[in-house]
Amino acid sequence: MQQTVVPGVAMWSQWQAQRNLFFNSFCIATEEGTLVVDPLAPDETDLAELQARGVAWIALTNRDHERGARALAERVGAKLVASEGDAPLLTSAVDRIVRDGDDICGARVIALDGLKTPGEFALHFPDRKTVIVGDALWGDPAGSLRLMPDENLSDPPRAVLSLRKLRALRPEHLLLGDGTCIFGNAHQAIWAALEARHDAYVNRINVDEALWEKGRRDKPPYDAEAFDVDGLIGAEKLGYQLGRLAPGTSFCPEHWHLAEEELFVVLEGGARLVTPRGTWPLRRGDLVAFPTRPSGSHRLVNDGDVACVFLAVANVDERDVCFYPNSRKLLLEKTGQLVRDNPLLDYYDGE
């Protein structure tokens, strides 16, 4: 078994002369036990290592990767997990069925559409900046990516558009079941493969396709819904986000940015804009600029009876600091750290 550059991730491979590429399997050490993804039949050395590690789960990213997974699970004492779409198509029963957004040993399930099987999924390990895919993309030729032949896809244009979800995660590393894995700048390789297609225009999306989500840590009244558009349509220097304020909700506490200038465009409904210069009604069609200084401080509140939908646009700058004047907090863009500027310290404090 070969260790990869990704911490805690090893792999083993078998050459497929018919396709002129390697098939790959992955072994990931996690806090919840060892996770194996799409196992090929291991040789005795790799089997002994798996038994020594103690495998907790074996994940099958699609139906065609079942292979001898049940027999391996019995030998290493693991449980099988597959998707809701593919589990009924397997020859063996699984111990767990997962859906989009579920967690497997710290990895998030990313459901994909239009591919070879109805339940194909990828696994995203955010702390390792890594995504694992089964057949969704092939690493061929080495250093680049492509989809499998169109005749093997259930809906090629739909598959292309679905794969934008992987690029939106901005992974550094992409571990592939087929071909050569991408270590470093994986999100760029994904986008190059998708932009090379002529059956789908990946830089476009409609508002009615928004998949609204609430932040996992958001609490009322700051529990508006959002949909991150930028990563899906290939944004590099600008950030785009759709926001939806249900009646009685607010979009973030009052704040202003040091480096990221924002523009809000009201698409539906209305809201109340709270600023240091007063409170102002917003209606459909309004464009509002928030400059990078204290006068740009703002908060949106929906006091009405219908939802307010808006588009937020900003330049992306990792040097940005976001200030929350009412609570005297500062959010550092690059690290995500949230600190308070009070109490103020002497320059030599602690020295």
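The above is record 1. Record 2 follows with the same two-line structure.
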Amino acid sequence: MPEPQPFAILAPVPLVHLESSTEVLATEASVAFGSNSYEVFNKVDELRDGNPVRVLIYASHEGAEAQPSYMVKWRGWYVGQVWNDDGRHPEEKFRPPTALSDTPSWMTFWHVSELEEMDKKHWFPISKVPKFKGGWTKLKPPRGPVLVGLPSALE
């Protein structure tokens, strides 16, 4: 992988989708997660100049507000996004099997390569993720993907 950018993406993803992503990554180079936060990914695409960007993922909890104590346990590389007007990925083979029954409502699908759950000793709370140029406030953790600074442990 190339040198990491000075920023990363912090994103919540349902644990069931993270766990079933291994099935996709057994045959494909990346897995796609749905989002309506297209502005975030457009900004990342503008800044990354075609290079992969570190993705920090914490398991989201259905219907619950994110808490500063939630732990970043997964990481990967953002490699691009795919738009589709009908709310579904144009190539379902990139979607986690558990996401295939989702109601088609996503504006964009962000692709992650080399997705892995980190060793427990490398987990850290989302409150330790630094801001990037105005970014998110640690008192109100994000409910969707956001641009963040790259934690020093990952530089």
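The two ends are 13 Å apart (CA to CA).
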